[in-house]
Amino acid sequence: MSTILNKMLLNNNVVQGYINLLGSAFASSHGVRVVNTNFFNTLRRDGWNNVARWMRSSGVVESNWDTAPIILVPIFLGNSESGHWSNLFRLGTNLKCTIYDDSLGEPAALENAEKVHQEINRTPLLDDGTHWSVATRPSQCGRGNACGVHTVLKFTALLKAVADANLFVIDQNAQRYTATCQMVGDMSVAEFEESGRIHMLESLCRGSINLDHPAVASLELRIRGPAALLPLKG
User: Each residue of 140-196: pLDDT tens digit?
Assistant: First the structure.
């Protein structure tokens, strides 16, 4: 918990603990599958075949990559002192879209997106029939340590939008899917980062996530495309 309280770069245990709560809250109702924080670095080091075998043996993903309608993938690039958190989520089972989100701001976020794209290309996370989209807003304050807060809260904003049946903006003229995330209301990015840490601490201590917390309510995530990728459950 010290990385939350001391405004440090969030460690694996904190990020994993929070997204596990998301998985528990949404797994049965929306088929959410949470991927371990070590997944991406293991993929880069050992390749897809080995990481898929490790995922099966560790029981991180309860259903396979093709049948899980929502897969959340936290991504950590760099070392524990100066690394950076971002996120990846894949939506859909027949028609699929994989979205990479990074709070670092352009052009660094786009450079990271290209690195991630190269690693996951031709895996079940990004096969030939999967749409690819990159979101880079809102950006974190400066080069601070709040990237982990942005990462987990954007996962939460995604699942809240799914639960509220307002994630998708249908545009039948669209040729591809695009994801946007923006701040809504009067909260500044700096206030969001502070409030987000408080929200995470409260969630981990209580063992559940308050979807009505001001930090969660301040983010709006939408996906525009020609059709909904998931059943529109109210």
Answer: 986 678 999 999 999 999 999 999 999 999 999 998 999 999 999 999 999 999 999
Asked if the structure places residue 234 within a domain, the reply is no
The whole model's pTM is what?
0.91
Domain tally for the chain? 1
Residue 195 lies in a domain: yes
DSSP codes, the chain = -HHHHTTPPPPHHHHHHHHHHHHHHHHHHH-EEEPPTTHHHHHHHH-HHHHHHHHHHHT--SS-TTT-SEEEEEEEES-TTT-EEEEEEEE-SSSEEEEEE--S-TTHHHHHHHHHHHHHBTSTTB-TTEEEEEE--SPPSTT-STHHHHHHHHHHHHHHHHHTT-SEEE-TT-SS-EEEEEE-SS--HHHHHHHHHHHHHHHHHHTS--TTSHHHHTEEEEEEESS-SS----
